Amino acid sequence: MTDRDVGAAGGRDGLTFNVQRFAVHDGPGVRTLIFLKGCPLRCLWCANPESQRPTPEPGFLAGRCLGLDRCRLCLDQCPHGALAAGPGRPVLDRAVCGRCRDFACRRACPAGALIVWGRRMTPEEAVAEAEKDAVFQRRSKGGLTLSGGEPLAQPEFALSVLELAKRRRLTTALETSGWADFEILKAAAPLLDFVLYDVKLVDRRRHEATTGRGNEVILGNLRRLAELRPGPRLKVRAPVVPGVNDCPQAAADLGRLLARLPSAAFEALPYHALGRSKYEALDRPYPMGQAKLAEGALEAFRAATESARAAGPSR
Fold it and tell me: ∠262-271-181 over CA atoms, to 5°?
């Protein structure tokens, strides 16, 4: 990562935080995922907390740090006094660090313990990343997927990437929470082959309690997207989260919703705690604690959803 890569996005540029290659679960075939920063939701189970804020964000990987008895280079490099000596390791004052656009401490750290989530990219650079895997994409009918965060939170960049990708004959997919102005989603639709649309909960109050927002916009956009003709292929995905929606009522609610979307595919995703270390790197508590998905809960949720879908929507 160069100095140019760190900074807020502007104009057609976008702010990304990861590029994942050879992905096979985010659309058909082998895909390149470009993860965009910024998300309007705060889901308790979010596996990418570094995606939430729309600005570059420092992370401290304590397991990599050499310790202050062996190395103090980061302390000497911070121009704002955001780093201080703690018990054997540096301590980051994030309120002060948030003012920084240089992150000299990251460059100074020989062990890579200090990182920055936030890389500025042009649409051309994003598509070029995907084209590095073109041979695998052609053989598998894969392509480029925009993910996040919420990619539609950076609409100008997302639309520019999708438009350029289509000109380069890449198949395109979007992973979205659905929380966006519908006009943005409508503008993206002709540029998309696939949309992977997350529906966490149909119950509005429960949705707001566990994500920080209601779901009226999400469900309204889903209905309108499904009505577009022609439109991208649509898959509704539901993360099955312990203590949140791993119950018959949530599954039945979702099944009745899907009954109104006959052309949409459906996938249930298992909860996991793989993002826990990222919360630690951001000095944030992990909201889900020690929660685990009960054995058989995913299969039970999937079966109950499909059963309710087959029974049809409530009158």
Answer: 55
Domains located in the chain, CATH noted? 3-55+118-311 (3.20.20.70), 58-116 (3.30.70.20)
Tokens of 197: 């649309």
What would the 3-class secondary structure string for 162-214 be?
HHHHHHCCCEEEEEECCCCCHHHHHHHHHHCCEEEEECCCCCHHHHHHHHCCC
Would you say 291 and 271 are in contact if contact means Cβ atoms under 8 Å apart?
A: yes
How far is Cα of residue 208 from the mean position of the Cα atoms in its chain? Answer: 19
Which tens digit of pLDDT belongs to each residue from 197-217?
999 999 999 999 999 999 999
Between vectors from CA 262 to CA 258 and to CA 266, what angle results, nearest 5°?
Answer: 50
What pLDDT digit, counting tens, does each position of 56-92 carry? Answer: 888 899 889 999 999 988 888 888 888 889 888 888 8
| Radius of gyration of the CA atoms of the chain, in A | 21
